[in-house]
Amino acid sequence: MARTLLRNVYDPEIGLNIIDLGLVYDLQVDEQDRCRVLMTFTTAGCPVGGHLVNEVYEALTVLGFADVKVDITFDPPWSPQRMSPEARQQLGWP
C-alpha cells in the first residue's frame, strides 16, 4: 500500500514518479504502522530534494501511518539504470 502511494509522488523536473525513477531504495512498514523510507535524489544537489521529501511525508501520512521517517542516502548514487522499463520507455530511452 505504501509503495502504491509513493507512485503518486512525482519528480517535477522529470515528470516521473519516484518509484519508477528508482529513487526509493527501501521501504519498511512495521506492526505499529511506522514507515521508514530510504531514498535518494537524481543528484546530490537536487534542487527539488526538499520538495520530494515533503511529498513523501504527505503521501504516507494521508494513509494514516503513525510515524514516517525519510532517510536520504547517496550510497549508492542514483543512475538511470535504476529506472523501471516503463520509465525508460516514457523518456524514450533504451
Automatic annotation (TrEMBL):
Gene3D superfamilies: Fe-S cluster assembly (FSCA). InterPro entries: Fe-S_Maturation_MIP18 (IPR052339), FSCA_dom_sf (IPR034904), MIP18-like (IPR002744). This is Metal-sulfur cluster biosynthetic enzyme. Residues 3-71 form the MIP18 family-like domain. It comes from the Bacteria.
